[in-house]
Amino acid sequence: MACAGGMVMLDQTVVAVALGPMARSLGLTTFEMHGVVLGYILALAAFAPVGGMAARRYGLLRTFRVGTAAFAVASGLCGLVPAGGAAEPFLLLARAVQGAGAALMLPVATTLITDVYEEHERARALAVYAALAQVFFVLGPVVGAVLTEFAGWRSVFLVNVPVGVATLALTAAAGVVRGAAGGALTALQPLVVVVSLVLLVLGLYACGEVGPTDPRTFAALATGVVTLAVAVRLVLRSRHPLVDLRLLGIRPYAVAVGLTFMVQAPQLIVLVHGALFLRQVTHLSVLATGSCLLPLVAAMATGTLLSGYLLERSGSIRVPVLTGLVAATVGAALWTAALTSGAYPWQVPGMLLAGFGMGLPVPALSAELMRAVPDHQRADASVLRQTLRQLGGAVGLATAGAVVLAANAEAADEAGVVTAAAAPAAFVVATCVLAVALLLAAALLPGRAGVSPRRGR
Question: What pTM, to 2 d.p., does this model score?
């Protein structure tokens, strides 16, 4: 399970460093270059509830294996993308399949670990799993830089193939028996949900390329809104819903999920655009770019690991969440201001503060939302949380990408380059999202974490 989680976490950071060389090699525009990341995140968000449905119908283990195989095969195809006019559709399709594979793996991994280990071993096993995923996340920029520098950008994708094979082999060797639960399977709900999310996010992103008043943009957004309304109606009326949207009627759960959505957006924005700025504006080498991103991801991982400690010591969800959002907002603002100098050392304080701040809220929010729902609904609550969290990343990246595209010079867009004048726009979007999240958290979060008193006295 750590191999699987590691692949997904690694892919979020390792590809950011390779974007510039990839765009130059394949002749991608800035619009298409952003799409390489956006397509993956959007597929991960759209197919996360499908993964939950498939696990109920076909069983956890079978769903996990299919997801791992799809992720590994799609990674290999990304590494073998042909040059020329077919490069863009080939790469975007392979990235979408990668995201769908990840959506089948992620919701299943923690459930399998929970099933395999006895209660007295479960917490330690889950902690090891989470720690290994964080290691992959932190090492991603350096691994991506080393692979790109010495083996070319294609190796960033090809490295997933042997890891995927090892994951499948280890899963078979473990001898885990997990039969199908026999749940219902429907094609209409997943189809309508996926289509609506794709239309909405791509319509939002297209605003930066063709403008918000363009008929194509309007058609995509309007159709997406109508389709989403149909999807919500289908899900709410179904006896076997794709995701249990009624959970959003539980106020603490809805608040925690909404804040998770908003925190995920700036995380991806600063990671992707931070890498592009260092590579294309400050003209650092690929290896130097990967190394210079280490303060951001290391600080983010540190905040993630400290979140539970702060929640336990304070007994209030407000402490880790508000502390994190204040630090993240201030850090993102400082980082944005430092971009005008172009010098890397001036960016480090804001990078550290923003990374640490964005790492703090999510684990505490996860604990809060799982506490807010009944035990028998926790699996559904986890799937809905995962869906909305990844959707937050997709919406944030699409919004920042649209703003950057609108500010970018046309010639630079055709060359797949983000100019020094346009690059800070993405960081302004991230700062604004964090500031709004801070205001909402201050107004809506409860005063106490709701942790039950210790028993057995």
Answer: 0.87
The DSSP result for 12-79, as a single string, is HHHHHHHHHHHHHHHT--HHHHHHHHHHHHHHHHHHHHHHHHHHHHH-HHHHHHHHHHHHHHHHHHHH
Q: Sign of the CA dihedral 437, 440, 444, 446?
A: positive
HSE of 371, CA atoms in CB hemisphere, 13 A: 17
| Residue bearing tokens 């330690």 | 124
pLDDT digits (tens, 9 = 90+) for 324-383: 999 999 999 999 999 988 789 999 999 999 999 999 998 888 888 878 888 778 778 888
Two tokens, residue 432: 């604004």
Range 148-178 burial, b when 16+ CB lie within 10 A, else e = bbeeebbbbbbbbbebbeebbeebeeeeeeb
Neighbours of 121 (CB within 10 A): 11
Radius of gyration of the chain from its Cα atoms, rounded to whole angstroms: 21
Q: Other C-beta atoms within 10 Å of 233: how many?
A: 11
| Three-class DSSP category at 235 | helix
Residue 394 carries which side chain, given as an amino acid letter?
A: A
Q: How many whole angstroms separate alpha carbon 337 and alpha carbon 329? A: 12
Q: Which residues of 64-98 are buried (b: 16+ CB within 10 A; e: fewer)?
A: bbbbbbbbbbbbbbbbebeeeeebbebbbbbbbbb
Residue 125, CA distances (Å) to 1, 128, 277, 386 in order: 11, 5, 38, 21
Average pLDDT, the chain: 86
Query: Rounded CA gap, 134 and 442, in Å?
Result: 28
Q: How far is CA 171 from the centre of its chain?
A: 25
